[in-house]
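User: what does the whole thing look like in 3D?
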Amino acid sequence: MIRIAVDAMGGDYAPAEIVKGAVMAARAGGIRIILVGQLDPVQAELKKHDTSGLQIECVRADDIIIEGEHPALALRKKPNASIVVATGLVKAGKADAVVSAGNTGACAASALYLLGLAEGVERPMVGGPLLGLAPRTVLLDAGANIDCRPHHLLNFAIAGTVYAQKMLGVAEPTVAVLSVGAEKGKGNELAREAYTLLEQSGLKFIGNVEGHDIAEGKANVIVCDGFVGNILVKFSEGIGSGLSRWLQSRLQGQLPTPAVDALCSDLLALTSVAEVIGGGPLWGVKGVSCVMHGRGRAEQVAGCIAQAKKAVETGLVTALNAELARAGHNTSP
Amino acid sequence: MIRIAVDAMGGDYAPAEIVKGAVMAARAGGIRIILVGQLDPVQAELKKHDTSGLQIECVRADDIIIEGEHPALALRKKPNASIVVATGLVKAGKADAVVSAGNTGACAASALYLLGLAEGVERPMVGGPLLGLAPRTVLLDAGANIDCRPHHLLNFAIAGTVYAQKMLGVAEPTVAVLSVGAEKGKGNELAREAYTLLEQSGLKFIGNVEGHDIAEGKANVIVCDGFVGNILVKFSEGIGSGLSRWLQSRLQGQLPTPAVDALCSDLLALTSVAEVIGGGPLWGVKGVSCVMHGRGRAEQVAGCIAQAKKAVETGLVTALNAELARAGHNTSP
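Assistant: Here's the predicted 3D structure for the full assembly of 666 residues, as structure tokens:
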């Protein structure tokens, strides 16, 4: 049985929605949930649900790292913070994965300091499927690596390839560099240099893709620096929210309300995968650490726990870290 | 009467849709159209329309610069290309503006070499409203300036401010840097340095905005390098096309076909302003040169000609170039 440590105190709707989502995930079966946080509020939330037959335990952690705190400083000041204790369970071999909707920087810092970086990696990476319109396309980095060098994009390509294989079931994922033209030589310095590096990588590199190719799912793995990736993730969320509100008002009275609601919620899912699966693994650390959107609710929490379970089952991290180490030996940054 | 030179041979649907659009624009009144291109095909297209009472003349240009040709080389090899001759009419004072849907690089190169750069500018800039969802928000650069320095972003901010004032009627446009967090200090090196420069610019700078703020129209002018801008423009077009196809199939049979079609076409317009207005001015040159999407049809051609007319009427270029020159004197790149 896979053991998932859940940071019960992290996120805009913690602990209520986190606990609710964890219970949902436990009901889906095959996992043991370890809720980490302040015992009183967590147990009070837990009592609201029927947990008979489910494997759920609580582990005490009295501190909380809130949004806006400086990650590294907070880690030092609050060794009993829920995210630190939860990640520590993975480090100690008492949990197979950690899931948190808390301060993203603190999640990454906890993973970095407690689990450690994989060989050949300088910073953890984040990313995953971006658009429901293109469910078999992974984009990274989504914001953990703002200023990048070409070898970082190579690492993103490796991470995305292993993710697409293990999590999406794509046998031979195609890889592309996000740029402003299809031809080699188009793009900024980073994109141009990454092109050359990826040509020699042994990955299934198909060249550059442009902005409109993302929604078309033209490649399974699309790499860019975290500045571009983060802006794209948020841009598509913003478009999704705006269009959803517009569609709601335009269809009011023309279709039954439940049909309109379903349509709008599907539209949101097509523009933002985060709306559906709630988050994804932090890549390049020695363990499974899944980071969620702060505003994730119970459904997203359950979705992210399911992702973490799948990552453990498929051996994502072991496979990924072996590939990253191999690439690290072949390139000199 | 404002005189617009139209490159009749440029664009995926030239000359048929270009001529049709030019006729539509002439019918809207207040302009004299100068169609530039190969006389036989252009006049053949012109004969398909009722042009009585309209001011439309043709000017001969036998060459065409096609998509994919190297702009600077093509300019040298083909001095009689339609875009060159059309831009030359502006240079010679025989037209007030030029509009083209041809090879974007060739349009920019023609403007650069024939009209010349405004003071303080190193390369022409492109941009404009990005999303119909945020019609009072201008984003630039949209792809003419791939690798940027902070003072380029200052120029984009100035150009966007003058555009928002003259073309969108916003009295005091707010300006923001596109980044990955609201706080000063967030972002890549370019965004962080541009923040400092814009703080001191005298523009109505409101700080950083993030990806989701674009659709919300959080600032009237949002600046980024042309690499990011170009990817965003195309990304939103891709999302629009994908969602439009999805909506079409989802609503089939639930609403009358014309209602579905109208909804889908509105959705496209909300995600891509280029679908509606077809293009915009090239900024930072000494004259009005409007560049269109290559796949623009008659409606977009007419829209872009109307934009060019408005740019002439409002004195956009004179005002803009004065501001750019002033900023050039105040900053040392």
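In plain terms: Chain B has 13 helices and eleven strands. Chain B touches chain A through 50 residues (CB under 8 Å).
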